[in-house]
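Onboarding guide, step 5: your first structure request.
Type a short instruction followed by the sequence, for example:

Predict the 3D structure of this protein.
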Amino acid sequence: MSVVLRTAGPADAEPLAELAAITFPLACPPTTTSADQQAFLVAHLSAARFAQHLADPARTVLVGEDEGRLLGYVMTVDGDPADPHVAASVHLRPTVELSKCYAHPDAHGTGLAARLVAAALEQAARRGAAGMWLGVNVHNERARRFYTKAGFEVVGTKQFQVGSRTEDDVVMERAIS
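The system replies with structure tokens like these:
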């Protein structure tokens, strides 16, 4: 596998939505129903929503691609958190949110997610950010271990809506050096 990292463009909206439909459910706790997962996908990870994300100058989407096939992506959002709980928890300013980080199951264990996070950190540093933060479900131990290994530390909590369910997340932050 020779995965190339690049910045996503408008033509990636549909492939990103297809990848999100595979990867988002993997990050959900087992108590999240498929109906709630689908509602989230439609509201936040559809091709139309990705087109909006890709057109938003505050957002950057990086993808990992192998021979035209998207295998992973990260999305960052520049600026202070809108959620007051997150804003009170995050201490490094200016900050960037690591809003999405997903890898196709075929790419698990290949280092792709770590490469995508490293690339997101590099981009944030070039834009002058002092820190990066993210939210991850309290029950997603695999992701929490991954982010801890990447230098993130738990700094607070927040809630995250998935369909009709309100999930509990930890807020993690790391300095950008």
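Each response can be followed by summary notes, for example: The first strand starts at residue 4 and ends at 7.
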